[in-house]
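Title: Prediction job returns without error message
Component: structure pipeline
Severity: low
Priority: P3
Assignee: unassigned

Description:
Job completed but the reporter wants confirmation the result is attached to the right record. Sequence as submitted:
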Amino acid sequence: GVRRFTEQHEAALNYLRALIESGETPLIQPYLTNIDTHGEVGLVTAAGVLSHSFHKEAILNGDVQWSSDGHVLEVISAHTPSESELALCDRVLALLPETAYARIDMLPTDDGPVISEIELIEPSLFLEVDTAAAHRIAAAFASLVRR
């Protein structure tokens, strides 16, 4: 699960140990404070073309709420990507082999967006933020199959 540690070094180490002992592989990232006010953005592509984009509000700046199945409850909405977000997405796609789909998550910094995660295998595509997204994804997949 997602946790934020500031000066609680012992608590962070204990949490990491517990994850490792339970067979999990932890991912450690620096906390970028702009996420507290600007949230996170994700761009979803299908067959190398932008399908849709979403915005997630920050979840670690207050009380984290959990669903009954153990996932963090998030506030997610449709998003119109900025030019800098589109440019970063294009740079990432240019480095990858052709992919059926990709989700490129970004965090804001004072110098522009940075990548927090690239999902190429079994991502959540957040299709619910755009009513036409499922159709675009299906059409892109169909075009790949016809090749």
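Comment from assignee: result matches the submitted record. The chain has four helices and five strands.
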